[in-house]
Amino acid sequence: MLKSIVGFTFGLVVLANTSVVLAGADCPSVPREQWLSELDMQKKIVNDYGFVIYKFKIDDNCYEIYGAASKESDASQWEKIEVYFDPSNGDIVKKKMKD
Fold it and tell me: Signal sequence: where (predicted)?
């Protein structure tokens, strides 16, 4: 019985740590006063990267969007994306295709 409880607890700890590793991105820790404003960041996302923003949010030390980008193989087609940005300069830290 004790082995089962210990094994179950260990499994939960491993699962919890795995979900933390898979979520988010590793953005640098930058003081908020050094971040681009949300409006400036949104302008950069649309104008410089060409992404469509469905949802914009702050995730830990990152700006994050759920949106769409045109496919490289066919610019008339769009694919869903999740992108994390360095808030101090707007660089892409992590990009995931959602299709």
Answer: 1-23
Q: Are the CB atoms for 92 and 84 separated by under 8 Å?
A: yes
Question: Residue 26 has which token pair?
Answer: 């590793």
The encoded tokens of residue 70 equal 């045109």
Of 1-10, 18-27, 30-39, the range with the lowest mean pLDDT is 1-10
Evaluate whether 62 touches 87 at the Cβ level (below 8 Å).
Answer: yes
Could you give the dihedral angle defined by the CA atoms of residues 88, 90, 96 and 99, in that order, rounded to the nearest 10 degrees?
140
Instruction: Give the mean model confidence (pLDDT) for residues 38-49.
Output: 97
